[in-house]
Design a protein that fits this description.
- The chain is an alpha/beta fold.
- Helices cover about 50% and strands about 10% of the residues.
- The chain has 31 helices and 13 strands.
Length: about 775
Amino acid sequence: MTLADRPLHAPATQPLPSLSVGAPESTGEPANKIAWIESAWTMAMFPAEIAAQALAYSLDSWQRSILFLDILRRRGNSYFEHNARRAPHVLHYGFELVMNGLELERPVNYGLLRMLAPDGMQKSDPRMRPVVVFDPRAGHGPGIGGMKSDSEIGVALAAGHPCYFVGFLPEPVRGQTVEDVCRAEAAFVRKVVALHPEADGKPLLIGNCQAGWQIAMMAAMNPDLVGPLMLAGSPLSYWAGVRGKNPLRYLGGLLGGTWSTSLVGDLGHGLFDGANLVRNFEALDPANTYWKKPYNVYAKADTEGPRFLEFETWWGSPVLLTEGEMQSIADELFVGNRLSCAGIRTAEGTAVDLRNIKSPIIVFCSFGDNITPPQQALDWILDLYDHDADLVAAGQTIVYALHLTIGHLGIFVSAKVATKEHQELQQAMDLIDILPPGLYEVVFEEKTADTPSQELVSGKYVVRFEPRGLADIRALGVNNAEDDLRFATVARVSDVTQGVYKTYVSPFVRAFSNEYTAEWLRQMHPYRLRYEMFSDRNPLLWPLAMMAEDVTANRVRIGANMFSQGESAVSDHMVKALDFYRNVRDSCIEGWFLSVYGAVPLQAWLGMRANASEVGHHVAGALARQEHLAGAVAEREARFYKGGVREAGIRALVYIGLGREVPSFDERGFAILRQVRANTPEPERSPLAAFKEMVREQLALLRADEERAMSALPTLLPRDVDARKTAFELIRRISLARGDLSGEAKRRLARVEALFELSEPPPAAETGAVRTLE
């Protein structure tokens, strides 16, 4: 259609051509010029259409504004209703109180809840491993681990596990400490163990964010009590990070130490307001806090309200901590970074050493997490161990899963993460339990029609554990010696400023602080004040509910509209502008931190330059620990020749698996072992815990001296040829569960077949045959 053919007055219903008009492309072709002229002419010829779209957009925008303000009003009302409860929470499932932390010898505001499966869901199996979810007390209220049906708690209940939840009340017991909470959590775990004497394993403990490092401390203090630990988005190494990212780690230096924490505690009359922690989290991403999140609600005001209000009920309910708790967290962890180097001591003087943990540790972190980046979740391993052999010798099994994009809250809130990573890891927990000491990365491979032995895969993904080394952790990014010295300088500055504040300022602040002033300051906190302003407590908003009802009844929605497109474009520019501000701010903070705390005069004045080469944040092996490891090595010598056909079969399986192109531990082989165990008569069946210990022992022997372990294998076999054939056929079946073998793995299978001497009894054989390998 040419310009001459176009009618002078187009109908009002005719769509307006795109207004993204610019200069014609410099191609020299007249057609491009004509198209540009026609677009400009279209704008000039359709004022009625433009006016109609402007009117439609104005009405839609006005109605969305009313709905948006009403959502904020309902959020404020929900805030007051939620916090009026004695024990507010956002748990999706029913529960019953099992143990009250207020009744302990050292009372704390924590409690142990038994989660109840809803109608229509299978009831828990008492023989399955219990799952205990620990909620983070980092400013927000409890329930984040179970606020949806697809959640950590939901996954555990759906699988039939007995599931428990450790939550807390909004106000702490005066005088409670971090150590008191750790001891209370240990008491809760003992209670769970006592309630499930028939369970196949010790409880799986899931700690989200702050709860992760807390259960790690508890496990280090009680290594024989706990089962596997899953630390989701939990920081354990607080100085770690990479330049250009992770600005939260500079906060202690920016404030000159932890004296500001003491000030807030004094103003709060012995209580620290969690709203300050939430404010720090929100400040990390101003574009999301001040624009993207509210604009998303405004743009989708018809549908976004329920989801927004559900999340805000948790996010907008800050709780309190004692001054002593928060001061200990700031001094020992955020600034001092003493957890990863065994620098924290209990009241009895015992060092909290993460190397004491005997059960597997599963670390789940994400590159999209700006609160707990992978370095802060994993670099504690580098602080504790110099070499891969040190980790193996210590008998510690560490598994980590890296997500590429999910944010901090998504690690334990996202339904997609719950139905993939959390579900698959919980299902593979028995396999994790038998992994040999060392470092592993979890690999999730989607199950397809071509997946070998897919009937042995419990979920939608094949879960594989591939061996890794400390070099893989270092490759994620580590501090250099100069940066470690800077953070150590911050810790020294903090000691000085904290001493000055406590001596000369704190007494005056405390003299003017009381319960009434503390409560007034909490209520006037900007984080809480916004709920007061947008709620029914504000008389100016009383007509809003009726207006929202009227708008909903007479809602007029528009389709494609030039003004709504412009609104989206403006929103995108706002996000970019706020992201630019954040990047400039973070760059300035990092530059200031590196310059100030890297200054040689400051470091020298504080005594940091005298032994600058020794400032590295690493814990040396204690003499007692080295002697213990030496004794363990000597004891291992006798175990090469100890056992029977079960030990021989497991040793052979591991030997073959280590010969694969990519040595890894796959859930399919372990599924066959579980089937064999289930089909074994009860009197001949080993307890699952004993079976797992047997597997770990054989793995350790192969890691220590592979050739010696295999040379000793014939001495473990029975004289009965049929028993040896039965055992070898099971080994072959398990080895081929992932598909045909090739190369080194195939050669190893042939060697095992030769060692089993299937045609005649071995020269040095033990009497008695065992029917299975379990």
